Protein: Phosphate transport system permease protein
Organism: Pseudonocardia aurantiaca
Amino acid sequence: MPTSAAARPVVQTGDRIFAGTAKGAGILILLVLAGVAVFLIAQAVPAFLASPADLPGGQNLVAYIGPLVFGTILAAVIALVIATPLAVSVALFITHYAPRRLAQGLGYMVDLLAAVPSIVYGLWGVAVLAPATLGLSDWLNRNLGWLPFFAGPVSVTGRTMLTVGVTLAVMILPIITAVAREVFLQTPTLHEEAALALGATRWEMIRMAVLPFGRSGVISGAMLGLGRALGETMAVAIILSASGAITFNLISSDNPSTIAGNIALQFPDSTGLAVNTLIASGLVLFVITLLVNAIARYIINRRREFSGAN
């Protein structure tokens, strides 16, 4: 039996416009991303094909970029290790412990941290945090100096990889907190009430119902924060006293630089093949950041909702 015209869904003009705009925006983002990739590859090719003697420092490209990749990942991992548990704790306090008015104000304050310019974080890190870490670095060296992370000698300025990691942790804290807070708020109420009805304490309810539900969301938020930490430029360039060495020592003056910080410091005075080398390192950072965000998106897409309760 043919379907009547009245039974067919009517597509409004506004729906068509919105669908077309959304589709065009998605295509535009892909084109911009592809354009950036093409530009980086085209500009990096001369560095890939050049003789090692012509590159900065007279070494091959891997030897030049390798320490920068190491420093970039090391600083980002330190920030992630510090920020993730703190962000989860803050998100749990806002969603399940704090009174409503306090939770709302605290949520706004945490979100405002994301609006602070990175150069302000850099100035805070070098003027406040770096001197404040001198005593901690001395204590770590005396008591944990047998670990390669705190072997020393201790930097007299505090402009170390540890200071950079703590600064980056503060910068990515609002990103992870915001994602974790929204995921924790979506925990099915019936699951929480069921745990409390069975005699669980508030912490036991959080451990049995909230944290399992929000685990993948916390992981994806941490990956997004990691992507931010990997690409941070000005704060790292201001704080870090880089020597180019590959070392796990977090409290000495011998620190590996990061890709973004090295580009910011070297690009203004570079010409010719040196510029191509810096762009090649930027291409490596582009690939690393793209992989991190792709992994985060993969985790989000695989997230399985709890069924049967809302």
User: Anything to note?
Assistant: The chain has one domain: 50-301. The chain is about 70% helix and 0% strand.
